[in-house]
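Progress narrative, work stream C.
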Amino acid sequence: MHRTSRALARLPRLLGVVSAVLWLACGGGSSGSTADAGGSSGSSGSSDAGGATDSGAHDAGGGGTKDGAGESGSSSGGPDASGDASGPDAGSPPFWEDTYDGIHYFQTFDSAVSDIAGEASHAVFVWGADQGSIAAYRSSSNPKIVLSDYMPWAYDPDASHDLAYWKNLHPDWVLYQCDETTPAYYPGTTNMPLDISNPAVVAWQIQTVATPASSQGYDMIAADELQLGGWGGCGVYANGQWKALYSAGTGDPKADADAVAWAKAFRDAAHALPHPMGLIPNFQLGGSSPTDPSVLGVVANTDGILDECSFTQCGSGHASGQTWLDLVSFAEYVQQQGKAYMAIDEVATVNDAEVEWALASYLMSKEHASGIFVSGVQQYGSDLWRSEYGAAIGPPCGAMQPAQGAYARTFEHAIAIANPGKASVTFTLPGGKLTDLHGAVQGATITLVAGSGVVLLASSPQC
């Protein structure tokens, strides 16, 4: 996830990073489990994700509305229900706004947003909010919006810190490829990769990212590109001697275990801050099963998942077949654990058909903590809210169901239909007047080509 537009805004933080590294070099720091800090460029990660229960998970709200399981609850009213306009209460990480009723937009970076108050009025979350915008968010009509501070998961945020710099400062933190010479750069970056299994690296991240963010009014840390299986790193030099960490550059189960351990160590420390901070990583299934134990472990040790690839596969095409079903299952599971699932759908060209595919897919799994952001590939930073997101669809009447060769989910005032198959499907619509999101009245049937979806508004209640 590239974000060079925020480089200058992060200079004060980066100076703090240097101070903290010097502090650690002089004996400071605390034990943790694994990690690295961030704030610069990167490429979209491709991992997997899943869920597991967690006693520390947030209550994502209830809504007291219709649900296929008959579940009800009370809305949290945003990050917390205290009415304090300064953000969530100290003592607990933020609660997610209840998203059960309607369509919910979130913002991916805000560096090009000129009207923060306007954006806050229709967004539930900001991935990578600029520090200079925090006051405007907190004084807006939506002061409880969840704000996250960005960091890359496992490399130095400052690309100017080359290998010589790190060899002089902390040579044992640098992660190398299996040739024992070349740093294991994350794809698309030249930032120095760090050993996320080193407790001192976790302590450094908490000290240089989470702690300042906590005092600045943020609610979450947005950790970019967390993934399982590694990306080419094999080991480090400890006291000048090669120390193998992984048997191969990718696919070592120990890399999975270290990623999960990092999430637990970082989140535990972030939750323990005087103003507790949550953790939401950019993390994808990437072909793994949503029930993979490591996937479950990541979800168990985070407060939400941002899926940059979601139903449009990082802009490479629409998810289909079992891949699409796994994404729906994964998004449902994450929310069942009280965590949020935020879906980015990148497309080559943003048009009505692409937006409806993204919306229909998102609505199949939308429960109490979910949001959607549709954009061109890596076109982040601007407010891309669309009028379609304001459609009054109401709460769901039940879960997604296979129907007529496609999948459908009924809402109180709408029906969403998606065709993730390989062939066109003609779908017989329920009775009553139905219109699309642009007001066009529908006939008795609708044909959905492969990889398409539609959201239709009903003139009478559907449940």
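Work stream C, second folded protein:
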Amino acid sequence: MFENFNLAMLLSETGILEAVIAEILLLPHIMMFIEKGKGAKKVIHHQIQQWKDNVTQELSQIELSDEFKQEIISYKEVQTWDPDYFSAHLPHLITTFENESGFYLKARSLSQLNMKKPSAMLYREFMQTWQKYLVDKITELQKDEIEIHKEKLLADIYKRIENSDIFLQLSEKEDMEMGAPLWDMSKATLKKQKLPYLKKIAAQLKKNPQLLDIAENIGRSAQSAVAPDALSEKTTIDEIHEVERDNIPDDVVGVYPHDDISRMLASESVYLSDPELEILFYKELVEKQLLNYQFRGIEEQHISKTYYQNSTSKQMKPKGPFIICLDVSGSMQGQPEKLAKALTLALMQIALEQQRDAKLMIFSKDFIDYDLTGKTGVNDLLDFMSYTFHGGTDLEPVLARGINLMYENRFQNADMVVISDFIAPSQPVTLFNKVKALKNQENRIHAITLSPHANPSVMRIFDKIWHFTPSRFHFF
């Protein structure tokens, strides 16, 4: 085992981390979370795998004492001895353990009790016992470190479960999936003093289910904009994807007990060097206890995918982010403010469900950016929900900012949604021209107006418009 001493491989061989992970997954709170929601198992397993990789890396660099390092060097040197040389030099070897190693008393006992055994058998038994001592000592060091890392992991998971539960309880979507964006957002420490604001807005959303209908319609528009029609040409392409698989002999990632002689560690063949020990080899072979190298590598998978191209040669693209521009001017105070905040919450839920980014820009005379699906997204949302609307309305700066964003790679195929009463002056011709150019690259610009007094000339900018009042809404 110590021929090429590797703490990471030792960690894999002893199975400490696997045992800790199994213990974590059996904790009642985590089991309940995994069982109750779509996507929960995936995000938990992904975080634990990341934790395992990080811990393995850290434990491979664990600091050993100089005395223990020297003992490992001695062990590796003795491995090169033949059994007769070992028997002749064993008394001197034992003296080197005195006052230096916890293995001293056990080594002396083995020497005294087994001196009459054949040299090969004595050598095998002594080296196995010494190896076990070294492994146990390192394992204890690793266990202490793992326990510290485990407590940090559990604290993080429990916090995320609590935070994500809060958000899921506020959601109107009963089947909302626990996806990676929501799980990442749940890492933040919530500003719980602001949660009442969010609960009030969630209640507003429940009173007006049409708001969620609007959000879902906008969410679907990204796909329908380029959906195949009767005149579409269908193309099937055979794509090659690289997938990481176990048992592909590219890299050695650990050691595990099995019965594959072709992947057996060389040290296991020592049994075959002595007729008296050969039976032990076949016993471990039958019981699948021979130490085998564990491999991992890349496998190429050929996957057929179908693409459609319509008459304008627009190929289907993945859904892009949401850019939500929300009017927070004084004219939006009262019921329009409540509806606007509820719409923002609904759009954020759709973004999380569809694994899409969502940027919020609130504006009056100026504007402020929030990244709703980022790691601080929940707290950004709480800050916004507690914000009181005031000031005048200036559409041009925030629209210009949104249009500029849509030319960036991150915001390709994005949906910009402007929520306002649109009681604003007509916009300059240059803005109309920018919007027209933007539509040619498959971005969509939506408007949700919360007032019957919207300026008609402003509304001509938008692809789709929803007019909403507490009693009804319509789209054209």
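The chain is about 50% helix and 15% strand. No further action is required on this item.
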